[in-house]
Amino acid sequence: MNELDNTKIAASPLAAFRLAPRVVRGFIGGVAAIAVVGLLTKLTGLPLLIAPFGASSVLLFAAPDSGFAQPRNLVLGHLISATIGLAVFWLAGNGVWAMALATGLAIAAMQLTRSVHPPAGADPLVIMLSGTASASFLLFPVLAGVVCLLVVAQAMNLAVRAMQYGGDD
Q: What global pTM score does this model have?
Protein backbone atom coordinates (compact mmCIF):
# COMPACT_ATOMS: atom_id res chain seq x y z
CA MET A 1 0.00 0.00 0.00
CA ASN A 2 1.30 3.46 -0.81
CA GLU A 3 0.46 6.88 0.56
CA LEU A 4 -2.08 7.57 -2.16
CA ASP A 5 -4.13 4.57 -0.96
CA ASN A 6 -4.76 6.35 2.34
CA THR A 7 -7.13 8.95 0.94
CA LYS A 8 -10.29 7.72 2.72
CA ILE A 9 -10.16 10.41 5.38
CA ALA A 10 -13.76 9.88 6.52
CA ALA A 11 -13.09 6.22 7.39
CA SER A 12 -12.30 7.11 11.00
CA PRO A 13 -11.07 10.07 13.01
CA LEU A 14 -7.92 8.10 13.90
CA ALA A 15 -7.15 7.47 10.22
CA ALA A 16 -7.60 11.17 9.48
CA PHE A 17 -5.25 12.05 12.35
CA ARG A 18 -2.55 9.71 11.00
CA LEU A 19 -3.01 11.07 7.49
CA ALA A 20 -2.80 14.72 8.59
CA PRO A 21 1.04 15.04 8.54
CA ARG A 22 1.16 13.64 5.01
CA VAL A 23 -1.59 15.98 3.86
CA VAL A 24 0.25 18.93 5.40
CA ARG A 25 3.50 17.82 3.72
CA GLY A 26 1.70 17.54 0.37
CA PHE A 27 0.09 20.95 0.79
CA ILE A 28 3.26 22.75 1.89
CA GLY A 29 5.40 20.98 -0.70
CA GLY A 30 3.01 21.74 -3.54
CA VAL A 31 2.68 25.38 -2.55
CA ALA A 32 6.43 25.79 -2.07
CA ALA A 33 7.43 24.05 -5.31
CA ILE A 34 5.08 25.91 -7.61
CA ALA A 35 5.64 29.20 -5.76
CA VAL A 36 9.43 28.91 -6.13
CA VAL A 37 9.22 28.08 -9.83
CA GLY A 38 6.58 30.75 -10.42
CA LEU A 39 8.53 33.43 -8.54
CA LEU A 40 11.73 32.56 -10.39
CA THR A 41 9.77 32.86 -13.63
CA LYS A 42 8.65 36.38 -12.65
CA LEU A 43 12.09 37.45 -11.38
CA THR A 44 14.10 36.14 -14.32
CA GLY A 45 11.59 36.52 -17.13
CA LEU A 46 12.48 32.97 -18.19
CA PRO A 47 9.70 30.46 -18.88
CA LEU A 48 10.17 27.93 -16.07
CA LEU A 49 6.65 26.75 -15.32
CA ILE A 50 4.64 24.20 -17.29
CA ALA A 51 1.48 22.33 -16.32
CA PRO A 52 3.15 18.90 -15.93
CA PHE A 53 5.10 20.34 -12.97
CA GLY A 54 1.86 20.44 -10.99
CA ALA A 55 1.46 16.71 -11.54
CA SER A 56 5.14 16.15 -10.72
CA SER A 57 4.53 17.96 -7.43
CA VAL A 58 1.75 15.50 -6.58
CA LEU A 59 4.21 12.64 -6.84
CA LEU A 60 7.08 14.46 -5.12
CA PHE A 61 5.03 15.54 -2.11
CA ALA A 62 2.11 13.12 -1.82
CA ALA A 63 4.03 9.95 -2.71
CA PRO A 64 7.72 10.76 -2.20
CA ASP A 65 8.70 7.10 -1.77
CA SER A 66 7.19 6.10 -5.10
CA GLY A 67 9.64 5.04 -7.79
CA PHE A 68 7.95 7.58 -10.06
CA ALA A 69 8.96 10.38 -7.65
CA GLN A 70 12.67 9.57 -7.49
CA PRO A 71 15.10 12.25 -8.70
CA ARG A 72 16.36 10.15 -11.62
CA ASN A 73 12.83 9.57 -12.87
CA LEU A 74 11.83 13.20 -12.40
CA VAL A 75 14.79 14.63 -14.32
CA LEU A 76 15.30 12.00 -17.01
CA GLY A 77 11.58 11.45 -17.53
CA HIS A 78 10.98 15.10 -18.32
CA LEU A 79 14.14 15.49 -20.43
CA ILE A 80 13.48 12.35 -22.47
CA SER A 81 9.81 13.15 -23.05
CA ALA A 82 10.48 16.75 -24.00
CA THR A 83 13.26 15.72 -26.37
CA ILE A 84 10.95 13.26 -28.09
CA GLY A 85 8.19 15.85 -28.22
CA LEU A 86 10.51 18.34 -29.90
CA ALA A 87 11.84 15.79 -32.38
CA VAL A 88 8.39 14.61 -33.44
CA PHE A 89 7.17 18.22 -33.66
CA TRP A 90 10.07 19.13 -35.96
CA LEU A 91 9.65 16.01 -38.11
CA ALA A 92 5.87 15.59 -38.21
CA GLY A 93 4.23 18.79 -36.98
CA ASN A 94 1.65 19.00 -34.26
CA GLY A 95 -1.33 17.06 -35.57
CA VAL A 96 -3.24 14.50 -33.56
CA TRP A 97 -1.23 11.57 -34.91
CA ALA A 98 2.04 13.34 -34.17
CA MET A 99 0.86 14.01 -30.62
CA ALA A 100 -0.14 10.38 -30.19
CA LEU A 101 3.16 9.13 -31.62
CA ALA A 102 5.24 11.48 -29.45
CA THR A 103 3.37 10.46 -26.30
CA GLY A 104 3.75 6.75 -27.08
CA LEU A 105 7.44 7.16 -27.91
CA ALA A 106 8.00 9.12 -24.69
CA ILE A 107 6.37 6.38 -22.62
CA ALA A 108 8.41 3.67 -24.35
CA ALA A 109 11.66 5.61 -23.97
CA MET A 110 11.03 6.23 -20.26
CA GLN A 111 10.34 2.51 -19.81
CA LEU A 112 13.48 1.50 -21.72
CA THR A 113 15.62 3.87 -19.65
CA ARG A 114 13.88 2.91 -16.39
CA SER A 115 13.02 6.56 -15.79
CA VAL A 116 9.22 6.54 -15.87
CA HIS A 117 7.72 9.75 -14.47
CA PRO A 118 4.03 9.86 -15.47
CA PRO A 119 3.67 13.68 -15.51
CA ALA A 120 6.47 13.82 -18.10
CA GLY A 121 4.19 12.01 -20.52
CA ALA A 122 2.40 15.34 -20.94
CA ASP A 123 5.52 17.18 -22.09
CA PRO A 124 5.14 16.26 -25.79
CA LEU A 125 1.56 17.52 -25.68
CA VAL A 126 2.64 20.80 -24.08
CA ILE A 127 5.19 21.26 -26.85
CA MET A 128 2.79 20.42 -29.65
CA LEU A 129 -0.17 22.36 -28.29
CA SER A 130 2.03 25.45 -28.00
CA GLY A 131 2.54 25.32 -31.76
CA THR A 132 6.07 26.65 -31.45
CA ALA A 133 9.00 24.68 -30.19
CA SER A 134 12.70 25.31 -29.96
CA ALA A 135 15.59 23.39 -28.48
CA SER A 136 15.76 25.97 -25.70
CA PHE A 137 12.57 24.35 -24.30
CA LEU A 138 14.83 21.60 -22.91
CA LEU A 139 16.67 24.15 -20.77
CA PHE A 140 13.83 26.58 -20.06
CA PRO A 141 11.39 25.41 -18.75
CA VAL A 142 12.17 21.69 -18.57
CA LEU A 143 15.62 21.34 -16.98
CA ALA A 144 15.56 24.57 -14.97
CA GLY A 145 12.02 23.92 -13.73
CA VAL A 146 12.75 20.31 -12.82
CA VAL A 147 15.88 21.33 -10.90
CA CYS A 148 13.80 23.84 -8.92
CA LEU A 149 11.21 21.16 -8.10
CA LEU A 150 13.97 18.78 -7.09
CA VAL A 151 15.62 21.32 -4.78
CA VAL A 152 12.31 22.05 -3.04
CA ALA A 153 11.55 18.32 -2.73
CA GLN A 154 15.00 17.56 -1.29
CA ALA A 155 14.66 20.44 1.20
CA MET A 156 11.22 19.16 2.20
CA ASN A 157 12.57 15.63 2.67
CA LEU A 158 15.41 16.93 4.85
CA ALA A 159 12.98 18.95 6.95
CA VAL A 160 10.65 15.98 7.41
CA ARG A 161 13.54 13.70 8.40
CA ALA A 162 14.85 16.31 10.84
CA MET A 163 11.43 16.58 12.49
CA GLN A 164 11.05 12.78 12.65
CA TYR A 165 14.46 12.16 14.15
CA GLY A 166 14.89 15.43 16.05
CA GLY A 167 13.13 14.09 19.14
CA ASP A 168 15.28 10.96 19.37
CA ASP A 169 18.28 12.68 20.98
A: 0.88
